[in-house]
Amino acid sequence: MTKFIEIAGTGVTAILLHPWRSAVTAGAVTVVLLPYLVCLGLSHGLRLEAESSIQLGADLYVSGIQFGHKVPIPLVAKSQIERIDGVTEVVPRIVGAIAIGRNRESAVVVGMPVDRFATGASFLEGRLPGQNSVNELVLGSELAHRLNLKLDSRIPPFYQNAQGEKVSSVVGIFRPDAPVWQANLILTTLTTAAAIFNQEGLVNDFLVYCRPGYEDHVRAKVLETVSYRAQGSSGGPRPMVIQRTDLTAVLPTGLLGQQGVFELHFVLVFAVGILVVLVTSGLGLSERRREIGILKATGWQTDEILFRSLVEGCLLSLAAAALAIVLGLVWLRVFNGFWIAGVFLYGAGVSPAFRVPFVLAPAPALLTVLIALVVVMTGSIYSTWRAATASPAEAMR
Amino acid sequence: MSDQVILETRNLCKVFRAGKSEVRAVDDLSVSIAAGSFTALTGPSGCGKTTLLSLLGALDRPSSGQVFFLGRELSRYSDVELARLRRRMGFVFQNFSLIAGLPVWDNITYPLIPRGVGRRERRDIAAQMLARFGLDDKADRSPSELSGGEQQRVALARALAGQPDIILADEPISNLDPVNSAAVMSCLQQIHAEGKTVVLSVHEPAIAPPGSRVISMAGGRIQREEIR
User: Which helix (H) or strand (E) holds B168?
Assistant: First the structure.
């Protein structure tokens, strides 16, 4: 036992014997691991927020489908759904994309009865649009930042409909620490949203709330009884119903799409990382070979030299992984995912004006340690093994 | 000196290849070293002294021929057995071959680590060795802070720390001034006087102490042998 403890001690000494090589190796691994860890943290954070939104959302989302595409549906269909047994509430909603401002910033307009949004008021600076108001808007923090709009700002007409052009006013702005979904949002009343898109009497979907256990029944009834067709018409959209479980099921697919960059980086970690460590192991390689030659000449066995190198590599890996985790936390928490959030979140920009969601869970942290171990070991053990299996005279030459 | 042969070579050859040319550093050389003897290998640079010592010390593998340690041929040794054999030999290198960055005491006892000798015991052994070679106050110094003679004495102390059966010293004084050379040679004679076998290589036969066996080499072969 003493022997192994003593040899392990020489592994620690080896790090201090070659401080530059150790620093470069640990630094190289950290640089490779850091974006990977940050991407993992972001994707976990996004997933949790998405799951949370689904849980807090409606039981069913009833919309219309025609020619394989989702299409707007008539607002009057609301009463048909309300009559179904088990339905407690039906909330019409308009969701649409617009481009606003001189630089045509992308934004998502959400129009719905404002009383349904009372819980969101806690995330606001200012207030929600008035129940019967027109052209009162609540803006997402990122959008307000990009458009340089403040509370009570007046927005010149950005849409035109049968009533002509209207000036809008900003009555609320989401706080930067609000959940990420608000970043590029324009929240307003159903009436204003219908006016913005010039689609009076139409909505995108109905949020349907049911009594517990009635979801499947209501879904079946909607598909069976609700009709969006005008009287006397044989065509028109068919009802489409999405349940909460359907949304949860598609979540991994959706986020995996966002994780494309992460997957690519995962491959790069191994390919580039091992190359980097092989190169850094080459720093002072002749000195390292000579040192290993001396150890062999003085009676060290190959396995003992490899164990020494293993301890050295383990410690360097742990140091690199710990550094990557700390820097990852700093990047996400202090610098709010500067630059990298834009890779994951469409429209987030270089410096997001909202709180970037992230979770550095134990599993990714352990994975980081594991990757660091594999990368460093593959790089350093190979070069050590080459030197240790040569004759001492050759290694020292 | 006993009649027991500790090291023996038979028809030993070592060929180094550089591109198409080849150099026979040791050429069909047969020699035996008696236990407890003091043997000096002499000859000009490139005559094969260092290569022969490396082969005798199991630091290199011969191209052909055999090396025997206490009657057992080295090619029959496994890698682990060769490592353990090297623990029975103390090798002193011309360029000292100390590990830069390690303090002197650690350099001396580094070979004892795989033998399971604890840190405290290693410090004690190093202190004894340093006292013996007059380096008591240098234990925590770095090798780079020592003179050439002091470094070579540290290398000697390292070679002796494991209580080897034989000391193989490759030109241990060629990089030293006369005063330090005399000090190192005195140490080697003292080691021999304690019953250890000593084989060293030197340029000048005159350096070999009286009563020692002097083997003159040229072109990788033995030219002549004499007892001083």
Answer: strand B166-170
